[in-house]
Write a sequence for this structure.
């Protein structure tokens, strides 16, 4: 009788430890998923703000230009295209480079209003950089848990998938040069 009770207690203890481990891993995976979603939200919001600010700056620059050519036509229609956040970030960086070049060419370095807008864009870029780093860090942690045994079993049960890093690079494929500037 005592042996049966001891065996039952050992089984209960083992099952309890297993349940605690399962719950802990599941909660860690969900915490990382939440952090990644928060970072995506911050990136989305800041890309929208950066886009709107760049459009305002481009409109101010157009008024200062002597020719009527629209150098920003490609960038004005970015919202209409189906771009990933990474692609949008790249395009907006190109637009900022064009703005800075035009500011220099038009000798508008002393234009306070324009400088304030450009400084605002630079502050947005700092937030974006921090959010991208946070996203990639948590994506790496989540992917690590998804790949390791026994956490990969729990991840499969709850349909967690390997995520790509912000730059869209797939570390699992055979393509070694899929990151292009």
């Amino acid at each position: 009788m005592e042996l049966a009770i001891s065996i039952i207690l050992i089984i209960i203890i083992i099952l309890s430890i297993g349940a605690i481990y399962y719950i802990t891993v599941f909660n860690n995976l969900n915490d990382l998923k939440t952090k990644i979603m928060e970072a995506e939200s911050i990136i989305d919001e800041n890309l929208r703000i950066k886009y709107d600010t760049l459009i305002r700056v481009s409109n101010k620059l157009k008024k200062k230009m002597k020719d009527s050519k629209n150098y920003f036509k490609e960038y004005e229609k970015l919202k209409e295209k189906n771009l990933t956040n990474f692609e949008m970030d790249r395009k907006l960086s190109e637009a900022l480079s064009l703005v800075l070049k035009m500011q220099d060419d038009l000798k508008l370095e002393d234009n306070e209003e324009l400088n304030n807008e450009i400084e605002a864009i630079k502050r947005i870029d700092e937030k974006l950089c921090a959010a991208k780093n946070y996203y990639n860090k948590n994506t790496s942690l989540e992917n690590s848990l998804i790949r390791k045994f026994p956490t990969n079993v729990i991840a499969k049960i709850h349909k967690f998938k390997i995520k790509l890093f912000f730059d869209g690079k797939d570390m699992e494929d055979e393509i070694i040069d899929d990151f292009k500037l």
User: Anything to note?
Assistant: Confidence is low (pLDDT under 50) at residues 176-181. Residues 57 and 117 are 7 Å apart (CA to CA).
